[in-house]
Specification:
Elements lengths: L1 H10 L1 E2 L1 E6 L6 H10 L6 E8 L2 E10 L2 E7 L5 E8 L6 H14 L2 E12 L2 H10 L6 E11 L4 E9 L4 E7 L10
Parallel strand pairs: 1-10
Antiparallel strand pairs: 2-3, 3-4, 4-5, 5-6, 6-7, 7-8, 8-9, 9-10
Helix pairs in contact: 2-4
């Protein structure tokens, strides 16, 4: 059973493409929710995203000192909010558990990005943004990291629960580029 679980965690690959879109291309329901929650938001960039889980629209902005990414279904229903944070902004117990996971499973690792992921009902997610109310909100952490084991070195995306336990992990496939990267 453990072997099958380990195999399924390694077998998943994340492939993601996004393109910038005009505000007029975004579903009306998404725009209404966004404007209610993020009143007086400054510069907002809208994207259409295709990935293994399906298509979605995404708003990206800076809000209260953090980069926010707000994802909507193609019909305009909010799916989640992701907030870019640093390791220091993790709750202490969560940080200890996460770092323990990395130390145990990888010879070397480097955390590339941490996002606090918020899921819940549209009204509850709106309350998080305009009232800092987190009741009935599911909090998770999406972490991009480079990990080196005895046999491989990969870029991964791990999803962890609020306590720092791994939910799933997948290899991230980087887009090919014609540019030289030094």
């Amino acid at each position: 059973m453990l072997i099958l679980l380990a195999f399924s965690l390694n077998a998943q690959k994340k492939v993601e493409k996004e393109r910038r879109v005009d505000r007029e291309e975004v579903p009306e329901e998404a725009l209404e929710w966004f404007e209610d929650a993020y009143e007086d938001a400054g510069k907002v960039r809208w994207y259409f995203e295709k990935n293994n889980q399906g298509d979605s629209y995404e708003a990206k902005l800076k809000w209260k000192g953090h980069k926010h990414s707000v994802e909507f279904s193609t019909t305009g229903v909010i799916e989640d909010i992701e907030i870019l944070i640093t390791t220091d902004e993790l709750p202490e117990q969560t940080r200890k558990k996460l770092l323990g996971y990395f130390d145990t499973h990888y010879k070397k690792y480097r955390i590339r990005k941490i996002q606090r992921q918020l899921n819940g009902e549209p009204d509850d997610l709106e309350d998080v943004i305009d009232e800092d109310e987190t009741e009935d909100i599911l909090i998770r952490y999406e972490i991009e990291f480079y990990g080196k084991t005895a046999t491989r070195k990969e870029l991964y995306e791990g999803l962890f629960d609020a306590d720092g336990h791994l939910i799933n992990r997948r290899v991230m496939k980087l887009r090919p580029t014609n540019n030289l990267i030094y």
